[in-house]
């Protein structure tokens, strides 16, 4: 997939019907500097950063208790939390998934499970768990592994038309669709959170310095966080170019 830097009037690929991302295609396009400048410009009325915005060295949210019913507790036994938001960045350990640094805390926030293919799942029912789960989706999708992309579509998307579309696309893809241009997460914003639903903004930066933001809508289902895709299979929404990280809590593993 290629795009000319002169084709600034070309249709935004993120809005094309049937533009499916088992997460990988969006990551690949964000990573292409020529493409990122074709994205819609960010909203000038971006939400302000929380007053206590911190860095990756800030304390993590402490796990607590919640009113989670026994039938919907974590499928792998991770503790839930009564926290409703994150005012600072969690103190995270990072590991590479594909080319993206991804947070990991298997005993507290997840992923609790990693299979022989490197597929990661099971995150805590907490704001930090939802954030880790969202970042996990982005990283798995950018891995370039068709096996991981199929697992992602099958296991980490909310069932429905969108999941069916993503699974169909993942089955049709062959070869690596991962990003050849390194990108890394630089910040996040939890737009809303309840123990059942979360909307999370992630900010990414390409190796050439361009920024983009995107939103993942998460749902707690079957004891883990899953992504709610659009009917065409698109898992990320609101993808826009941004000029800087204003409004985001800084958070990065690289």
UniProtKB/TrEMBL annotation:
Keyword Transmembrane: yes
Ranges annotated as biased composition (Low complexity): 48-71
Transmembrane segments: 20-39
Occurrences of domain DUF8175 (ranges): 59-249
Pfam families, alphabetized: DUF8175 (PF26526)
Keyword vocabulary terms for this entry: Membrane, Transmembrane, Transmembrane helix
Top-level taxon: Bacteria
InterPro entries found in the cross-reference section: DUF8175
NADP recorded as keyword: no
Region (Disordered): 47-74
The name this protein goes by in its record: DUF8175 domain-containing protein
Species the sequence originates in: Arthrobacter terrae
Origin organism lineage: Bacteria, Bacillati, Actinomycetota, Actinomycetes, Micrococcales
């Amino acid at each position: 997939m290629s795009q000319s830097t002169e084709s600034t009037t070309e249709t935004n690929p993120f809005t094309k019907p049937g533009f499916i991302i088992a997460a990988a295609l969006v990551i690949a396009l964000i990573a292409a500097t020529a493409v990122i400048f074709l994205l819609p410009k960010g909203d000038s009325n971006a939400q302000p950063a929380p007053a206590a915005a911190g860095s990756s060295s800030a304390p993590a949210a402490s796990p607590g208790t919640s009113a989670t019913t026994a039938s919907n507790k974590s499928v792998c036994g991770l503790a839930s939390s009564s926290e409703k938001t994150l005012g600072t960045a969690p103190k995270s350990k990072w590991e590479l998934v594909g080319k993206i640094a991804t947070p990991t805390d298997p005993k507290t926030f997840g992923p609790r499970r990693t299979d022989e293919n490197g597929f990661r799942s099971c995150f805590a029912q907490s704001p930090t768990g939802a954030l880790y789960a969202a970042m996990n989706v982005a990283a798995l999708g950018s891995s370039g592994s068709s096996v991981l992309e199929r697992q992602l579509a099958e296991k980490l998307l909310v069932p429905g038309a969108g999941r069916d579309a993503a699974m169909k696309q993942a089955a049709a893809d062959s070869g690596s669709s991962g990003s050849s241009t390194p990108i890394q997460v630089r910040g996040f914003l939890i737009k809303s959170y309840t123990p059942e639903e979360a909307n999370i903004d992630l900010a990414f930066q390409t190796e050439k310095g361009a920024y983009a933001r995107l939103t993942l809508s998460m749902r707690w289902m079957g004891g883990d966080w899953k992504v709610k895709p659009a009917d065409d299979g698109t898992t990320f929404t609101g993808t826009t170019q941004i000029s800087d990280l204003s409004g985001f809590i800084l958070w990065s593993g690289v």
